Amino acid sequence: MSFLSVEHVHHVYFSKDSATVALEDVKLNVEEGEFISFLGPSGCGKTTLLSIIAGLIKPVEGTVTIANKIITKPDSIIGYMLQQDYLFPWKTIEENVTLGLKVIGQKTTENKQKTLALLKEMGLENVENQYPSQLSGGMRQRAALVRTLATNPKILLLDEPFSALDYQTKLRLEDLVVQTLKDYKKTALLVTHDIGEAIAMSDRIYVFSAKPGRINRTYLIPKELRELAPFYARQHPSFSKLFQQIWKELDQFETE
C-alpha cells in the first residue's frame, strides 16, 4: 500500500441557497519520500484537498490514509506550512520553533537541541532570542519550516509557502526546502499556482481541472530535472518544454 492514499474523495460546500461541488472522485497515491505538487486554476479545490489530507475537513465521501492510518482529524504525523508564517510576535524565535514540541508534550532537552541545530542548518544562527519582527520574510518562513519539522512529522503539507516572498528569496528557499526534505527523508505535498516552482521542486505534478475539481493529468518530472537542485533545474532545456506543455493545459481551463 502507498504511503499516502486518497481514495474517491468527494467534497461539497453547502450554503443556505446552494451546494458547490469542490472535489469530485479524487484518487491518488504518493510514495514515501516523494515531493508532489498540485497545480490548477483558482477554485479547483487544491487547498480543500490539502485540508482534507490534513484532517481539517471531513470529506462528504472518500478516505485518506497515511502510513496505514486513516486520517479523520489533525494528527502529529502531519505537518502543515502555510503562505503566512503565523509566528507569534510576542514570542522569541526559540519559543516559536519549539511551540509544537511543547503542545504535544515532547519539549525535552534533546528535542530542543535538535530544533536549535536545525535553525542553524537553515542559516538562522544566533536568532533564538530575537522576535519575528526582527527577521526578514524569508527568515521567518525558514523559522516556520523549522517549527513544522521540529515535531518530526511523516508528511509535510505546503500551501503556497513562498508566494509572498520576493523572487530571489523564493528561489533560495526552494533549494533549501527541497534539500532539507531530502536530507530528512520527508514526503511533501505542495499547493502552488507557480508552474515553474512545481516543476523545479517536484517528482510528480497533479494538474486539476476546475469546477468541480478533478485530477486531469499527472506529470512525472524527467529524471534529469529531479536530480538537479530547483535553481539549476529551471535552466535545463527539459524545463522549458514541460513548462509550455503545462501552461497550455492550464490556459485551456481558464478559457473554457
UniProtKB/TrEMBL annotation:
One of its GO terms (molecular function) is ATP binding. SUPFAM superfamilies: P-loop containing nucleoside triphosphate hydrolases. Residues 7-235 form the ABC transporter domain. Keywords: ATP-binding, Nucleotide-binding, Transport. Transmembrane segments: none annotated. InterPro entries: AAA+_ATPase, ABC_transporter-like_ATP-bd, ABC_transporter-like_CS, ABC_transporter_ATP-bind, P-loop_NTPase. PANTHER family: ABC TRANSPORTER ATP-BINDING PROTEIN (PTHR42788:SF21), TAURINE IMPORT ATP-BINDING PROTEIN-RELATED (PTHR42788). This is Spermidine/putrescine ABC transporter ATP-binding protein. It comes from Metabacillus litoralis.
